[in-house]
Amino acid sequence: MSSRDSEEQEDELLALASIYDEDEFKRAESSQGGEINVCLELPSSFKIFVYGDEKQNKEDLIEYVVSFLPPLVLNFQHPPDYPSCSPPKYTLSCKWLFRAQLSALCTSLDKIWKDGGNCVVLFSWMQFLKEDTLSFLCIESPLEIRRDVKGTSECIFSKGKKKELGLPDNAECPLDPRAIRDVASWGSVLREILDFDQKQQQQTFNGKAFTCGVCFAEKLGTDCTYFKECKHVYCRACMKEYFEIQIRDGNVQCLNCPEPECASIATPAQVKELVEEEMFARYDRLLLQSTLDLMSDVAYCPRSVCRSVVLLEPGSSMGVCPGCRYAFCALCEMAYHGISPCKIKSEKLTELRNEYLASDESGKKLLEKTYGRRVIEKAVEELCSQDWLEKNSKPCPRCGTNIQKMNGCNKMTCTGCKHYFCWLCTCPLPRLDPYGHFSNSASPCFNGLFQGIEVDEDLLSDEDDEDIFL
């Protein structure tokens, strides 16, 4: 190695280390070489399609918008006679480009070396890969990434591009051994792209300053978080407190953006990053439970000591608990009864009656099909009767018989047990002096014998009490 070559190699490596950070340029520790990572400058709203199958239609694909794609990686090694005689030895790898595309880029890198007249070339290579790769390979949005069944020997260039590369019109693109497609399997390509894009976006976000939408303090991105869909930014302290309040109240489905009328929702990863481990465990448990509650084919074992999650067969109301093996009806939560109508628990009668009366025709037919029309009619009648009795009658304090007062004074006689009682306070009255309750000044119903009624004094008599047994 001549002293001039050695000096130029060292100067080049020092210059690149001063221009680029370690993410872009990394010098080898034990040799005159290193690794260059080139991230392409993508236009805004750049979209990609990933084809997992050659037969897939474009209409069936999901469209992804990305800001960054995984880098082109140039691993190089300086030979002793670089740059006076030989170019750097290198490999060019990428996770999403075909080997034919990488081979074409290798051809261009070789051409840049030849046109440079035996000068250091790494900076020129980096600039070309960074600024011209998309236009050179005719890549534009949306980028279609397909499985390369033929081992990437299929030519992907137009006749004009072939002519530029010095290839015959009918030639296939030659595969350069220095071109490497660095991906473990085709199925991981999309994941690699999306993960890298998210990582780079977060890195860019961390380096900027933002104003919190809650406390309005200006903070660096490392102290902030943002909602993925709407991009609204808030400081981590405000979001931590907001999330914890919602989780303590059980509102795990309402961890949405604080911006009014914004429908963006926090991801579980965001919540886990901000709250304590115990609080996240509660969030995770409540989120799972609320999600299961929304699933029509999921029920819970009705036994209070079990409450295991039970998956129902499609179209069936029978559930068999995997824990206690209890077979039950998912509609009424009682023992499974086959095609017989559901038996309704007394505490559910009011709920069923209200639901039935508030339903439209289709809703009523569904309830009748579920519980049986006669059962629902009986429930409605019984509850209507019960409501009427509660409003228009009072129970006898001795036997509990419902008594309706039609007219007369407030001294009542039960038609069931013949017991006297006060209509105002339902207090039992002594048989020898039932009216003393109304004439005694210490009584709560003093002078209340005719309270609440219009009385014709000429017609008043002890026999005017008309008590109806119900």
CATH class of the largest domain: Alpha Beta
Q: Name the overall outline.
A: elongated
Overall mean pLDDT? 81
Q: Report low-confidence residues grouped into runs of 5 or more.
A: 149-156, 459-470
What name does the CATH topology of the largest domain carry?
Answer: Ubiquitin Conjugating Enzyme
CA-to-CA gap between the ends? Answer: 118 Å
CATH superfamily of the largest domain: Ubiquitin Conjugating Enzyme
- What's the tally of helices? 12
Any guess at the CATH architecture of the largest domain?
Roll
* Fraction in helix: 25-40%
Largest sheet: 5 strands, mixed
Number of strands: 21
Rg result: 42 Å
Instruction: Give the tally of structural domains.
Output: 5
Q: Which structural class fits the helix and strand makeup?
A: alpha+beta
Strand line-up of the largest beta sheet: 1-2-5-6-8
The proportion of strand residues reads: 15-25%
